[in-house]
Design brief:
globular; 14% strand; Dna Ligase, domain 1; Arc Repressor Mutant, subunit A
Length: 160
């Protein structure tokens, strides 16, 4: 799969006279391996040999080429991830305390029901919907524990 993604990225960059350099390939590897959207600081932590200016410059090229998109967290930091056309459709969870953003994949039947419902809403409103994004906001496990918040999962376990 990684080779397919690299081939896709290289082809998309070539259309815009962009080269797929070793630095750009390393950036794709970092984003691909993260499994969630990353801040620039997190990208730099995972690839300390790369200069910050290079990360910003390459992210701008990738964004312009439609290879990455920005993901808003619940804090002041922008996060980046490979575009869904490359990695597949998913949604996000953002922690309202620490700001961490995680990928969330819905079960197929839930995703299909969501698509149908959004299609019906769009038809009633007279609009066309090409895609959707669903952002869940709440507390991650660590922040929930720190606040003493019991999740449904822990409540079920305690009731047994």
């Amino acid at each position: 799969m990684s080779d397919d993604i690299h081939a896709t990225v290289a082809a998309r960059l070539a259309r815009g006279d962009g080269r797929y350099t070793g630095g750009r390939r390393a950036l794709v590897d970092v984003l691909l391996g993260a499994g969630r959207p990353l801040t620039v600081e997190e990208i730099l932590d995972r690839s300390p040999q790369v200069r910050q200016s290079s990360v910003y410059r390459n992210l701008a090229v990738f964004e312009e080429s439609g290879l990455v998109h920005r993901v808003a967290g619940h804090d002041e930091f922008t996060r980046y991830e490979l575009a869904e056309e490359i990695t597949g459709h998913h949604h996000h969870f953002a922690c309202r305390d620490c700001g961490r953003v995680a990928d969330v994949e819905l079960p197929r039947d839930v995703e299909e029901a969501l698509d149908r419902t959004l299609g019906e809403l769009a038809a009633r409103a007279g609009i066309t919907v090409d895609a959707h994004r669903l952002d869940l906001v709440g507390l991650c496990r660590e922040c929930g524990r720190a606040r003493g918040v019991r999740t449904r999962r822990t409540q079920r376990g305690a009731a047994r």
